[in-house]
Amino acid sequence: MGLPPVSAIGIENYRSVRSLFMRVGALNVFIGKNGTGKTNLYKSLELLQQAALGRITRAVSEDGGVESVMWAGGRKVHDKAQIRLRADLGDLSYKITLGLPNPISDPALPLETMVKEEELNLLTGRRPVCLMQRKGPSVFLRTADGERVTYDNELLSSETALAHIRDGARFPELDVVRHTLSEWRFYHSFRTDKDSPLRRPSANVTTPTLSSDGCDLAAVFATLKEIRQDVHPLHEAVADAFPGSRLQIEANGQDCRFSLETPEIHRPFPARELSDGTLQYLALLGGLLSYRLPAFVALNEPETSLHPDLLEPLAKVIAQAANRSQIWIVTHSEALAEHLIDHAGAYPRRIYKDEGQTQIDGLKVTGEFIGET
């Protein structure tokens, strides 16, 4: 079973997002002013991935705990103080609910983030078919041949069924969802200081996909050169941004390195000497033009540190990447949004706040946008 695309996302009670459900396409661009909550959309997807990695409760704890990331606005009397996240992947729908423990009945540390519920449904047919349901420590699952079983080992409040139950032969859909979410990539303003991993050589290891911190950027470039033996899209993107310049890539058996030749200077600039903006742009190229793109790539304000002249070349690269992967972008750059309209036909969704709630202009309760059929 291949990795399914994201068809919809649901978020409830997470930071400034009170309740939101939306359909997802190949290239999803969100634009808004600072403080509207666009980064919270990005962070909610990062948090959802942590369920597949088995770290979701730890991630919330490291972010200050449930009370810090919970929707802080008004709630109805009977509303539970819980965060709910959902990802529809093709015809599979995964949901997870996080909350605080009942101090009397729940086996958890005081004020610890708990996994309250998890659910996996198959959405084909007239009614969803429940493939996995977890409430507290108990989990029931439906096997590949339709048998309903109960998971023998009770889960701790900090564990997810998605990460903990690993039996692809009996529960193939659970395996697909875990693998798909685990492969997602999030790129948020790469470090470009003098100690940045981008400025250091990479291990001499074939690297098909850029890591989230960009520490293997040189190896990603070397993989394109030595394994794919096609660096034309990469050289084209470099020349488009820096006319007359060319990327030099070296894999010497000990490590991988890159440098940039420019028409003004008679020696190449190694990564440690490149400007912050140049290095940031090259890192984005590594993430978007790599040998193997993950099924889903999210970029948070990719325009950070970039000169305005680099936004159109970046938009062209994003348009190319959207043919190989689903792309999710949050930005406050009107210029980048305009270039994405021109080169990818992707019209940005406007994010705004209404009474403290993050909203998306034109989004209907069904998840579609006004004007879509």
From TrEMBL:
GO MF terms on file? ATP binding; ATP hydrolysis activity
Query: Which biological process terms from the Gene Ontology are attached to this UniProt entry?
Result: DNA synthesis involved in DNA repair; double-strand break repair
Pfam families given in the database record: AAA_21 (PF13304)
Query: Where, if anywhere, are coiled coils annotated?
Result: none
- Domain ATPase AAA-type core span(s) in chain numbering: 27-336
Please give the PANTHER family that the UniProt record associates with this protein. Answer: DNA REPLICATION AND REPAIR PROTEIN RECF (PTHR32182), SLR1056 PROTEIN (PTHR32182:SF25)
Protein's UniProt name: ATPase
